[in-house]
Design brief:
- The complex is a heterotrimer of chains A (106), B (294) and C (292).
- In chain A, strands 3-2-1-4-5 form a 5-stranded mixed β-sheet, with helices on both faces.
- In chain A, helix 1 runs parallel beside helix 2.
- Chain A is globular and about 35 Å long.
- Chain A is built from 3 helices and 5 strands.
- In chain A, 28% of the residues lie in helices and 24% in strands.
- Helix content of chain B is 36%, strand content 26%.
- Chain B has a 9-stranded mixed β-sheet, with helices on both faces.
- Chain C has 292 residues and is α/β, with parallel strands linked by helices.
- Chain C is 32% helix and 28% strand.
- In chain C, the strands form 2 sheets. Chain C has a 9-stranded mixed β-sheet, sandwiched between helices. In chain C, strands 4-5 form a two-stranded antiparallel ribbon.
- The chains are: A alpha/beta (106), B alpha/beta (294), C alpha/beta (292).
- Chains in contact: A-B, A-C, B-C.
- The interface between A and C is medium-sized, with 16 and 13 residues.
Chain lengths: 106, 294, 292
Amino acid sequence: MKVAITSTGDNTDAKIDSRFGRCSYFVVYDTESGSTEFIPNPNLESIEGAGPASVQMVASKGVSKVVSGEFGSKVKSIFDQLKIQLIVVNDPSKKISDIIELLNQK
Amino acid sequence: MNEIAVLSGKGGTGKTCLSAAFATLCSNVVVADCDVDAANLYLILQPENDTEAVFVSGQKAVINRETCTDCGVCISYCRFDAISNINGTVEILETSCDGCMLCMRVCPENAITMAISDKSRWYSGTFRNGNMVHARLEPGEENSGKLVSVVRKAARELAKKTGAETIIIDGPPGTGCPAISSLTGAKKTIIVAEPTASGFHDMKRIIELAGNFGIKTYVVINKYDLNRDVTNQIADWCRENHLPVAGNIAFDPEMVEAMLQCKSIIELNPASDLSREIITIWNKIEKDEQTTDY
Amino acid sequence: MPVTIREMKIAIASGKGGTGKTMVSANLFYSLQNAGMKVSLVDCDAEEPNAAEFISGSSAGVSLVSQKLPVIDTEKCTFCGKCFEYCNYHAIVFLPPANFIQVVSDLCHDCGACVYACEYDAITEINKELGKVNTMQVNGQCRLIEGRVNVGVYSSVPVVKKAIQSLNCEDIAIYDSPPGISCPFIATVVRADYVVLVTEPTPFGLNDLKLSVATLEQLDKPYGVIVNKAGLGNREVYEWIAQKNIPLLMEIPFDKEIARIYSEGRLLAEVADGYQERFLVLSEKIKQACHE
C-alpha cells in the first residue's frame, strides 16, 4: 500500500507540512517495500486551485491514504469520491520518520 | 500562532486605525495589510521595507496586429465582454480580460498570445513594534484574493522567523474573494461595526461569512455615540446571536489627528479614554482562549 | 438657462470604503427624481448593497443571476484530457487510470473553454446561482436596481453586469460603485460616461484617491472629485487635485448632524435645507463636464 504524506523538506527528518495543497513536498511511502519518494509540490505557487491539482498529483501515484495537517472541503470531497482515506495529524512537530513509524504499527 | 483578522463588511468603519492601535500595543507582532486594493496601514506604521517582490496576478490576452484579420471569431467566444470591434478593429480591454485563453485557442490566424501580468508588488519590512507585510495591486488586476494569500503566507513565515506569537490582519471591505482569503485559517476575527443602518446591514453579512468558517468572532462598535439607538440594536442582535461585543469606542477627532501625524491613537495619547478602551478590548480578545460556540 | 440632461450614466466611486459613495448616490437620485427627471439608481456594490437603506420603493421584480457550470457526462467522456488541458483555472480534476473526471465548481470561472475543447459532446452546462438583481419602483417613473451577490461567492462581477443591463432607457442612471480598484469597480466604471470620486481630506483618503485616479486614467474615463467630511484632516487632498487640474465638484462638511442623518438611513436632500439644490448643481456640473 502507498501512502502520501505532506512534508516541509526532502528527507525523513523533515517535519510534516500542515497544509495539503500548498505543502513543500509530497512523500510517497510504500509500506511493503519501505521505499520513499520525495516529490516537490508543483502547485505551491499556482494562482488558484492548488488543492484539487494536488489531489490529482497524489492520486495519480496510486496512494490509498494521505496524511496531512489539514484538508479543505473541496479536497475532502474529491478524495472521498476516489475512496482515498485521509489522516489528519494535528502536530506540526512530527517528523516524516515518526509518521512512517506510526503507519508501520497499524 | 494567534492570527487575528480585523474586518467590517462596510468600508470606512475604522478597521485600519484600530489595527494600527492594536499593532502598537504589541512588542513583537507581525502585521499583514490585506486590503491590497487600497492599502493604508503603511501610512501610519511607516515600515522600512527590506523585501520587494513581484506578484504575478495572471495572464492577459494580447492581439498581434500584424496577423489579426479582425474576423471577430474571438469576440463571440469571450464570456467576459473583454473583446470588441471598435471602428473595424478588434481590441481587447485588458482590465476585463480574465486570462482564460479561449480567444487564443479559437483564433484562426493564431494572432493572440498571452502576456503575464506582473505589475503588482508585495513588500515586507520592519516597523516600531515588529514586522509588516503589505502589497499594492495594480489597478484592474484580478486575483486580489491570491495576493492576500501571498501576504498572509509571508506574514506567517516572518512570525515563525522572529518568534512573534500574534499576527494582526487588516482586512479589506466586502465579503468577496479578498475578504474570504483574509479570514481563511484565522483563529479570531474582530468585526468593526459602526452604528449606521448600512454598517449594521454589512456587519451581518461579514458575520455570516465568518460563521461559515467557524472562526471565533468579536464585535467592536466604533463611533458608537453617533447613534445610540442603532448601537443598542447592534448590541441586542449580537446578544441574540451569542456574539460577544468586546467594546464600544466613542467618536473622537483625535483618531484623525493621530492619522495626520502618522501615529496610532495609542502612540498619540496613550492615557486618553479612547486609548484605554482600546487597550481593554485588545486584552480581552487576545487573551480569550474560549472556543467558538456557534 | 436650465440644461436638460439626456441619457447620462454616472458612476459614484471611491478607492477607500466609507467615504460616502452611497450617501452621494442616494441624494443625487432623490434630488433628480424630485426635479421630475426619469432616473435610476443601480447599486453595484453587490457585496454590500446599501442604497435600499436610504430609498424605499415597491418591489418590481427579482431576477436571479447565475453562472454556467460545466458538468461532464462520464458515459460520453473518452478521458482524452483535452478539457483538462484547456482549463486555465485548475477547475477540472482528471485521473485517467481511475476513470475519474470532475469539475470543481468553486474554481470554475465560466469561460467556456472546456465546452469548446470537448469533441465528444460530453460537457453540458447547468446554472449555478450567484446572486440576485432586485428592482424597486420609486415614485412611478424612477427605479432602484440592486445587485446582491450571495455571501461566499468569489466574484460579484456577473451580478454587477446583470444589474446594469437591467436598465431601460432612463434619462439618467447613477451607479453606486463598489470600493477598491479591482474587477467589480472596473466592471462598474467602464459602463459609465462619467465618474465621480468621493474622498475625504485625510491621508487615507488621498492615498486611495490617487489609486482610483490612476485606474480611471488608464481607462480614459472623465472624472471629478467630491470631498466629503470637509473640515476633518488637512488640505493635502485639495492641493493635490488643484495641482492635477481635477475638478472639485462639491464639498460636504463633516458634521455630527449629517452623520446622524446618514446613520438613520435618511437623506440630506430631504431633511437638510439647501441640499437638494446643491445636488442639482452637482448634476449640472457633471452634465457640462460630460460635454466638454
